[in-house]
Design a protein that fits this description.
- By secondary structure, the protein is mostly helical.
- It has one domain.
- The chain is built from eight helices and no strands.
- The longest helix has 25 residues.
- The two termini are 22 Å apart.
- The relative contact order is 0.14.
- Keywords: Membrane, Transmembrane, Transmembrane helix.
- This is Rod shape-determining protein MreD.
Length: 194
């Protein structure tokens, strides 16, 4: 007997991979503004002008937001495989960031029942704490093996940007992709517990 699979559920992995590929493609585009080579008298926070700030990690926000809302729609091999692929494309140490992201998503996946009762602000606080642990673990492991790293102020700026963009990614996931936390006892179209 063949097991039926709801078609709507099967579309989320290709959708995630398409969004991830788009984000990675945009990260690889050479978007250097040559006017930034001139000194900027209006340098802001951390001595960086708004043009010098690194882009937030949209893919990490998307991954964590989806795992919090519907951990069953984004399997661990998909996350590990794509982040390993991205490590190689972005010339990061292969597997380090992929492992950190996989551990973070599995931490959230193991607590999915508890996270259902969290409001957005508790989820956001958990995201900030998890991001801080991921950021520090990555920097510490790279320092242990004496790998070259981005300057601390640029890494911290990306960390802040990622934290600030998370609510927008959650709103996009909720309103556009219809990903929401299932209610306690909610079942899918086949009657299986979510």
């Amino acid at each position: 007997m063949t097991e039926q699979f709801p078609t709507g559920k099967a579309l989320y992995v290709p959708l995630f991979l398409a969004l991830a590929a788009m984000v990675t493609f945009l990260r690889l585009l050479p978007m250097q503004d040559y006017s930034t080579l001139m000194p900027d008298p209006g340098a802001g926070i951390l001595g960086l002008s708004w043009r010098d700030w690194p882009a937030p990690d949209f893919l990490l926000c998307l991954t964590l937001a989806w795992v919090v809302r519907r951990p069953d729609l984004l399997p661990a091999p998909v996350i590990a495989g794509y982040f390993l692929f991205e490590d190689m494309l972005l010339l990061r140490p292969p597997g380090l960031w992929a492992l950190i992201v996989l551990l973070a998503t599995e931490f959230l996946r193991a607590r999915s029942q508890m996270l259902r009762g969290f409001g957005f602000w508790l989820e956001y606080a958990l995201f900030i704490g998890l991001m801080l642990v991921m950021f520090l673990a990555n920097r510490a492991l790279l320092a242990i093996v004496i790998m070259p790293q981005a300057p601390l102020d640029l890494s911290f700026a990306q960390f802040l940007g990622t934290i600030l963009v998370y609510p927008a990614v959650v709103a996009l996931s909720h309103f556009v992709f219809k990903l929401r936390k299932p209610a306690t006892g909610e079942v899918d179209v086949l009657g299986q517990k979510l």
